[in-house]
Write a structure and sequence with these properties.
Helices cover 41% and strands 22% of the residues. The protein contains 11 helices and 16 strands.
């Protein structure tokens, strides 16, 4: 079976050029992110709960973290993500952590007291310890970025998984269009060298993307991915083909295998995971799966959704300011040249379809400088297509 690619017309030729431009820019970003992922040195420290110590500082929003590793005490910086993970494991709500870290010195003192008391006094339900519970602290440049279970699957590391992803994508002549890497996670997107036309005059590209976090900020995932080749909005995670967790929560450790394995076993686990990622890419880019996605996109272009229902979907996914941006785009005088054209009823109310809604969220994502937020918004955009 072959791909249902677009007809060769003057309009599709413009889309082809747009796709080639994305490949041109994506090639360098892919090289840059690949180098960043390879050079990121993660030091893992196994820290017992009784050896975790927190102190407040006069620096707003920051705590001193002084764990004892072995017989030596260290001073590490705390990434906000790791701090939230720590707080969650001892039952301190993330919203309360935000309140205290954005408050005054006495509030930081309260947070450090709570963390010390709860880590030292609570009983942790781990299967991976006998006398005392322990956690893996994932440290980069003297900062703890991840606080995870001892069974956290270290072999699902970004460089290993990215290598498998890129090699298999290349077998389909898929090339990178974008790669991003933040302190917490990486995203790598490779697209087929074909232009598709699910609706007359509406051109898209289809590919696969790899998402991964080495710090417990997301699953390892291989997704089907879409870009609209008119305008600039970019949609991601239309459908997850493969996902794998790095490990359960530290208090709910149900995995009997430890991350601390022999070098030989580690290499075998890496090879097995790479094979799974390669298989997932092959499935995602197979003509059957791509043509199936084309049908999904075509249906999204005709499936209407009310603004009320759309706002309900946005709840918990978009901020009020992000929702306001999309609401403004619905006004006739504010129609964006970078989005699919809207039609309006007799009362000048926009008739919204899932394709427009998805692209609108994608446009908000493209305007967001925070790479982790961008990834979350693109996921929200992609899932709209399959509603």
């Amino acid at each position: 079976m072959s791909y249902n690619a677009a007809r060769q017309t003057s309009a599709s030729a413009v889309a082809v050029q747009r796709l080639n431009d994305l490949f041109h820019h994506g090639r360098q970003s892919a090289v840059d992110i690949w180098e960043k992922a390879k050079k990121m040195v993660i030091v893992d420290a196994n820290v017992y709960v009784n050896d975790m110590h927190f102190d407040s500082t006069s620096d707003p929003g920051n705590l001193q973290y002084r764990p004892v590793v072995g017989e030596q005490q260290y001073l590490y910086g705390l990434h906000s993500h790791a701090l939230r993970q720590m707080a969650t494991e001892v039952g301190i709500p993330a919203t309360f952590v935000t309140t205290l870290t954005s408050g005054e010195t006495w509030e930081l003192e309260e947070l450090s007291f709570l963390l010390n008391e709860r880590f030292h006094r609570l009983e942790f339900k781990q299967r991976s310890y006998v006398d005392r519970a322990s956690f893996t602290n994932r440290i980069v440049d003297n900062q703890v970025r991840g606080f995870v279970s001892p069974s956290f699957k270290l072999w699902l590391s970004t460089p290993h998984m990215l290598e498998a992803f890129a090699l298999k994508a290349a077998q389909f002549n898929a090339m990178p269009v974008e790669a991003t890497g933040s302190a917490l996670r990486f995203n790598f997107r490779s697209f087929l060298p074909h232009v598709f036309e699910p609706k007359d005059g509406e051109f898209i590209a289809i590919g696969a993307s790899l998402a991964n976090s080495d710090f417990g900020a997301g699953l390892l995932r291989v997704n089907l991915d879409v870009i609209r080749l008119a305008g600039s909005s970019s949609i991601s995670c239309v459908k997850t083909i493969y996902h794998r967790s790095h490990g359960g929560g530290a208090r709910k450790d149900q995995d009997t295998s430890s991350a601390f394995v022999s070098t030989e076993t580690f290499q075998k686990l890496v090879a097995a995971a790479q094979a799974e990622v390669g298989d997932a890419v092959a499935e995602a880019l197979h003509p059957d799966k791509v043509n199936e996605l084309l049908d999904t996109v075509a249906k999204a272009m005709t499936k209407q959704i009310s603004w009320h229902t759309l706002k309900e979907y946005f709840a918990g996914k978009l901020s009020q300011s992000e929702i306001k941006i999309i609401e403004d785009l619905l006004e006739k005088q504010n129609q964006s040249a970078f989005l699919p054209q809207l039609t309006y009823d007799a009362d000048d109310k926009a008739i919204i379809d899932l394709w427009w809604a998805s692209n609108a969220v994608g446009q908000v994502a493209d305007g967001t400088p925070d790479l982790d937020r961008k990834a979350d918004l693109r996921d929200a955009a992609g899932k709209l297509l399959t509603r």
